[in-house]
Amino acid sequence: MSMELSPLIMDLALILIAAGVMTLVFKRFKQPLVLGYIVAGLLISGYLAGYLPENIGQYIPSISDSENIAVWADIGVIFLLFGLGLEFSFKKLMKVGGTASITAVTEVVSMLVIGFAIGYLMGWNYMDSLFLGSMLALSSTTIIIKAFEDLKLRGQKFTNVVFGVLVVEDLIAILMMVLLPAIVLAQSSLGIELIESVGKMVFFLVLVFIAGIYILPTVFKYIRKYMNDETLLIVGIGLCLGMVVLSVEAHFSSALGAFIMGSILAETIDGEKIEHVTKPIKDLFGAVFFVSVGMMLDPQVLVDYAGPIVIITLATILGKAFFSSFGVLISGQNLKVSMQSGFSLAQIGEFAFIIAALGLSLKVTSDFLYPVVIAVSVITTFTSPYMIKYSDRAYEAFNKILPARARDFLNNYGSGSKTINKDNTWKKVLKTNIFVVVIYGILLAAIALLSVMYLSPFIKGHIGGWQGSLISVVITLLVMAPFLSALLMSKLKTKNFETLWNDPTFKKGYLVSLMLVRFIIAALVVSYVIFIEFTSKAGMIAVFVIFAISFALWSKTLQKQYTKFEDRFMQNLNERSVSKLKTEADVSALENIHMDTFEVTPTSPVIGKTLAELDFRRKYGVNVVSIIRGDQRYNIPGGSVRIYAWDKIIVLGTDEQMDAFGREIEDHSLEPEKKDETEVILQQFVVEDNSPLLGKPLCDCAIRDKSECLVVGVERDEEIIMNPDGKFVFHEGDIVSVVGEKEKVRNLCCVIT
């Protein structure tokens, strides 16, 4: 009985053996592994054997079934984008600031134009030129991180700027992968199709992200006790591929679906663990993808197109260095940081390969473009460390030849940019309202479409006539009601809004227009749902009026329902941050912050002393949340409160902190007090651009005095600040953890967000 091995298995074995050998070689010479994979692909592609004498070439193994390898490569792209999403985080995107956004947009647009112009001037067709510009626009995250680590530069100011730019570029790359197919398929009506594609993508992204953040972290919380590494791996990959299918069904790319699911899972408490358990699979299929890239590298094409390769390489290095530096400079950084950042971004990498593969799959790019771009990527990969290393010298040389007046202007511009670029109050109000309209407009539109497409046909299939239509409309409007309330009222009367409203010099018509826009959108959505179901004008008017009256009568209840939805969403969105906050005190032991109750015995040394004298927070890191004395309860007590025998003290801290605190109190063994209407909770809020806390030190905010709440921790970027002192200044994007009575904490969050 003879057994034959499938060509797919033989090819996969050859790919992995070749990749393994080349990675060892490139590791030995401290070169990026991506280049090793590309060289491995070149060696087994069959091209090399064709250029060697027949008696030598026949002994070089090559791939037998390239179509099957293309499937593996597609899977590789999916897992590469899934891994990128796990590292991405939309919260991180919101924190990168104006510098990163301005730089990324400046660089991408400039290189897109330069790449297109080069292709056009060399006589290439429209699509080759467009894809060339798209590939040159994006820098390589992998290569930059490797270079920073090798040169020991991580943590410097310019490296933080570069990482922010890379985050924005990742999102731009995803946008390109959606727009390029739309351009290919609709060249005759380009403008309309592009706008439609962008609108669909925004609708899809917002809807899926909100639904994912609302549902997945909650589900993970309930099933976490059943999850080990194996089940987490299966669930993570299953969710990834499920979103890929959904994305393709919605006429988007599989890569977009993988990226979205990765970014959603990144916000869960298990995000880092999912990233860890899926990394080997991402590395495996990523290697197959990059080897497949090398397999398409025809050496003869490199010889034939040596001139264009040199021109494109020089344009990439010089263009990206200049325009990236320019983008950082105009965003307000000084010349040195600008040039260091710009020189660091002067290369192309992984996304260039993915976009090149997209062009081939759409059959709109020429065969020569793929190897040309790979050659440029290889060259710029080798030059990147030197560009970063010598950026300081380039700055010093450029600074010397600058006229004194120009040098002074650049320095003054950099130092004064924060004042120049600061949004005024009207812009902040406008931005907040646009955000609310977009988010809740999309949610309401999605509910309306789902009702028309699925709910209404289902109900009418069982209940005919106007009764079925009425039931469908009632159910739809009930689901919409909390979000309609949010659209009409959420973040409307903020501090900035009231400031403008009370300003006699400001035209109140602008503010009235914002409120009117919200009302019109809400009315249009409700009218659409009613109009679709009822043909009679009288019926439509009657239903609309009844709904409007009911909505007004039950507005407070609807606001409470919406508040619950928003609380759950924000809790899930910040769940990973809360986990980091709770584990910061003892990361190695993974100790959680929690509340515990201590009883003061008559022999305790703390009796008769005030909380200010005892200073538990400084000594042990714990926060006194409540003191229970007989039938009285003092929540968030001040420093003047004294401790008496038999007082029950509820404190917030880690197990280690509790043990140290308990030794001073001497008697610790009480169960926590039963929760009641004065329940003390730990909750988080985000400092937004219109928050009254923004730019103020903690001592000036008087949170403890006014709200009887206590700030116990702040997350800023990747840093956790436990028990911040009075000099701590709040920045936009800070995630603040407060403890206090349930209602008082919620009132505080309503006032400052």
TrEMBL record:
The keyword Transport applies. Keywords: Membrane, Transmembrane, Transmembrane helix, Transport. Gene3D superfamilies: 1.20.1530.20, Regulator of K+ conductance, C-terminal domain. InterPro entries: Cation/H_exchanger_TM, Na+/solute_symporter_sf, RCK_C, RCK_C_sf. It is a multi-pass membrane protein. Signal peptide: none annotated. The keyword Transmembrane applies. It is found in: Membrane. It comes from the Archaea. Its main location: membrane. Residues 583-667, 668-753 form the RCK C-terminal domain. The chain crosses the membrane at residues 6-26, 33-49, 69-90, 102-123, 129-148, 160-186, 198-220, 232-248, 309-330, 342-362, 368-388, 434-456, 468-489, 510-532, 538-555. Belongs to the monovalent cation:proton antiporter 2 (CPA2) transporter (TC 2.A.37) family. This is Glutathione-regulated potassium-efflux system protein KefB. It comes from Methanimicrococcus hacksteinii. The gene is kefB.
